[in-house]
Amino acid sequence: MRGSPFVLWPSPPAFVTAGHIGQWGARMRRSPFVLWLLPLVLGACTASQEPRLVWEGAGIARAQSITEATLALRPMEPGRDGAAWGESTDATFRLLQTTVAEHPHVHDEHDLTIVILAGHGILTVTGREHGARPGDVLHIGRGRVHWFQPDPSEPVVAVAIFTPRLNAADSRVVEMPEEENAAPTGAALQSR
């Protein structure tokens, strides 16, 4: 029945034409059932779920949704919450949630890798702006001046990975010239 409004493809693929699979395929191609089932199946396969945090390192193994993990965060300063999430012999993992911009600062002894889990913002590193969104991985080498400004519409949740392992605080606020300390421009906003 070429030309039927219920045909999903013009002719069946070669593997569908053999035996009862071919008969089933031919019936299903003409079935209105397929027209409403297909979007449901495809939607279920592509439905986004909240990312999970899985820890299988030293200490207690755990798997948590972002929502569960952020419930354990403690205030670090107004608008910024955080907690240690884990440590290995070579790295410290911190879970952070922020709604306020950081001051320009530097980590003298540690590299920092940030994995954005939720929310959007702009990371500025040595004057270059980078839009950040869920799934982005941002690396800042030690000694580089940087700061993060979250989008005020929602909190940003991220995992910060310090290498080598933190033994003491390693954050030094840096005074920036006024023009370099300005709010991020449209260029970074467009890259999000």
The percent range for strand residues is 25-35%
Going by CATH, the architecture of the largest domain would be Sandwich
Largest sheet: spatial strand order? 3-4-5-12-7-10
CATH superfamily of the largest domain: Jelly Rolls
Share of residues in helices? 10-25%
Number of H/I helices: 4
Main sheet overview: 6 strands, antiparallel
Molecular shape: globular
Radius of gyration: 25 Å
Q: What oligomeric state do these chains adopt?
A: single chain
Strand pairing plus helix content: what structural class?
alpha+beta
Q: Which fold does the CATH topology of the largest domain refer to?
A: Jelly Rolls
Poorly predicted runs are: 4-10, 33-38, 186-192
Extended strand count: 13
CATH class of the largest domain: Mainly Beta
Give the overall average pLDDT: 79
**Helix and strand pattern:** HHEEHEEEEEEEEEEEH
How many domain regions? 2
Structure notes:
The two termini are 47 Å apart. The protein has 192 residues and is of the alpha+beta class. Helix content is 19%, strand content 34%. The longest helix has 15 residues, at 32-46. It folds into 2 domains: 14-46, no CATH class; 52-190, Jelly Rolls, CATH 2.60.120.10. The radius of gyration is 25 Å and the shape is globular. The strands form 4 sheets. It has a 6-stranded antiparallel sheet. A 3-stranded antiparallel sheet has the order 9-8-11. The chain is built from 4 helices and 13 strands.
